[in-house]
Specification:
Elements lengths: L4 E7 L6 H13 L5 E8 L5 H9 L4 E6 L4 H11 L4 E4 L7 H8 L7 E5 L6 E2 L3 H18 L10 E4 H7 L10 H12 L3 E5 L1 E2 L9 H21 L8
Parallel strand pairs: 1-2, 1-4, 2-3, 5-8, 6-9
Antiparallel strand pairs: 4-7, 5-7
Helix pairs in contact: 1-2, 5-8
Length: 238
C-alpha cells in the first residue's frame, strides 16, 4: 500500500466557498509531507460545485466524484469505499487540520481509529455555546441508546484502511449518522480507538439547522441500535 493518506471530503453546494476552502485544504494536507489523495464527493449540488472543484484542483492530487442526491453519509461511504491508503481521514471543507493529520500518522501500529474529539479535556472548542451544548446532548444520547464510550463521533477522524475495508459495507446509516455508526461498529468490534484534543475553529458559521437535525438524529440512533441487534457483531480475532 504505497499511498499514505486518503482524505475524503463530502461537499454540497459549495461553489461560493470552494475558492477559499479547497486551496487551504490542499495546503494543509501537503504540509504533512506524505503521499496523499483528496477525494471530494459532491452530492446533489445545484450550483456547479463539481465542475468548479475540478477547475480549482490544478496539479493537486484531488479527485472529484458526484452523486445524484444530497446525502452527507452516502457521500462519505462512497469516498471510503474508493479509498486504498494506509490511513483514511474524514474532513469537512471548512474544518481540517495539518496537526490532526500528523497526529494520525504518528500513531503506533496497534491504533486503528483516531478521533479528534471536541470534548477532550485538552480541546479548545470555539464554537457558539448552543453548538457545544448540542454536542454534549448528542454524546449523552450516544451513551444511553448505543452504550458507546467514545466522547465524539463527528468531526475529524482517521481510520486505518483495514478498518474501512472491514466495516464500511456493514453501515446502514446515511445522512448525519454514517460516521457515528461506523465508529460504534469499530468500538464494538474491538478496534483500538484513541481520542485526541483538537482546536475547533470552523471557517464559517454552520449552514444546517440544528433544530431540524434533532428529530432525525434521535430516530437515527435508534435505527443504528436496531441494526446492531439484528445481526451478529463482527469481532476482531484474538
Amino acid at each position: 500500500m504505497s499511498l499514505k493518506l486518503d482524505v475524503v471530503v463530502p461537499v454540497y453546494n459549495e461553489a461560493a466557498f470552494l475558492p477559499t476552502g479547497l486551496p487551504a485544504l490542499v495546503e494543509a494536507v501537503r504540509a504533512v509531507g506524505m503521499s496523499y489523495r483528496i477525494t471530494l464527493v459532491e452530492n446533489g449540488s445545484t450550483d456547479g460545485t463539481a465542475d468548479l472543484a475540478r477547475k480549482l484542483a490544478g496539479e493537486a492530487a484531488v479527485e472529484v466524484i458526484s452523486l445524484p442526491d444530497p446525502d452527507y453519509g452516502a457521500a462519505m461511504r462512497s469516498g471510503f469505499l474508493r479509498a486504498d491508503a494506509e490511513w483514511v481521514v474524514n474532513f469537512d471543507i471548512d474544518y481540517f487540520s495539518s496537526a490532526f493529520l500528523r497526529t494520525v500518522l504518528d500513531q503506533p501500529d496497534e491504533v486503528d481509529l483516531v478521533i479528534g474529539s471536541k470534548r477532550d479535556p485538552g480541546s479548545d472548542d470555539r464554537r457558539p455555546l448552543i453548538r457545544r451544548l448540542a454536542t454534549r446532548v448528542f454524546n449523552l444520547l450516544l451513551t444511553l441508546v448505543l452504550g458507546s464510550k467514545v466522547s465524539d463521533t463527528h468531526g475529524m477522524k482517521g481510520f486505518r484502511g483495514s478498518l474501512i475495508s472491514d466495516l464500511t459495507s456493514e453501515v446502514v446509516s446515511t445522512k448525519d449518522l454514517f460516521d457515528t455508526e461506523l465508529v460504534v461498529r469499530a468500538e464494538r468490534a474491538g478496534y483500538q480507538i484513541v481520542e485526541v484534543p483538537v482546536t475547533v475553529e470552523e471557517m464559517r458559521s454552520a449552514r444546517s439547522s440544528l433544530i431540524r437535525r434533532i428529530p432525525r438524529t434521535v430516530a437515527g440512533l435508534f435505527q443504528i441500535r436496531r441494526a446492531l441487534r439484528s445481526r451478529p457483531e463482527r469481532r476482531l480475532a484474538a
